[in-house]
C-alpha cells in the first residue's frame, strides 16, 4: 500500500496545479478571447487526470476502499483546490492503516 501512496500523492498535486492553471486559461479564453493557453493546458490536464484515476484505483484496491470512497477521491481532481485537501486526507488515512497493521 505504501508503494501506491507516493504516485497518488505526486499526481494529486500535479493534477491540482494543472487544474488551477487550466482555470486561468479558461478565464483568459472566455473573458479575454485568448484561446492559446487553454488549448495547450486542457489536453495535458486531461492526460494527467487519467493517470491520477489509475493511481487512485491502484491505491484504492491495495487499501481495500469501498467504491463510493474511491469515486469520491477520483472526483478530487475535478474541483480546484480539492485535490490538495483529498490528498492530505487520503495520506492520513493510509498512514493510519499502515500504523494499525504494524501493531
Automatic annotation (TrEMBL):
DUF3817 domain boundaries: 5-91
Keywords: Cell membrane, Membrane, Transmembrane, Transmembrane helix
Residue stretches spanning the membrane: 12-28, 40-61, 67-86
One cellular-component annotation, GO: plasma membrane
Subcellular location: Cell membrane
First-listed, main subcellular location of the protein, grouped into a coarse class: membrane
Record membrane topology: Multi-pass membrane protein
Pfam family, one: DUF3817
InterPro entries: DUF3817_TM
PANTHER family cross-referenced by the UniProt entry: MEMBRANE PROTEIN, MEMBRANE PROTEIN-RELATED
Record protein name field: DUF3817 domain-containing protein
Organism, scientific name: Nonomuraea mesophila
Amino acid at each position: 500500500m505504501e508503494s501506491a501512496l507516493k504516485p497518488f500523492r505526486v499526481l494529486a498535486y500535479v493534477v491540482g496545479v494543472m487544474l488551477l492553471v487550466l482555470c486561468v486559461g479558461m478565464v483568459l479564453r472566455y473573458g479575454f478571447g485568448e484561446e492559446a493557453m487553454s488549448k495547450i493546458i486542457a489536453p495535458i490536464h486531461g492526460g494527467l487526470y487519467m493517470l491520477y484515476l489509475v493511481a487512485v484505483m491502484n491505491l484504492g484496491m491495495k487499501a481495500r476502499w469501498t467504491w463510493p470512497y474511491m469515486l469520491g477521491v477520483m472526483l478530487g481532481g475535478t474541483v480546484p483546490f480539492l485535490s490538495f485537501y483529498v490528498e492530505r486526507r487520503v495520506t492520513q488515512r493510509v498512514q493510519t492503516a499502515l500504523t494499525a497493521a504494524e501493531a
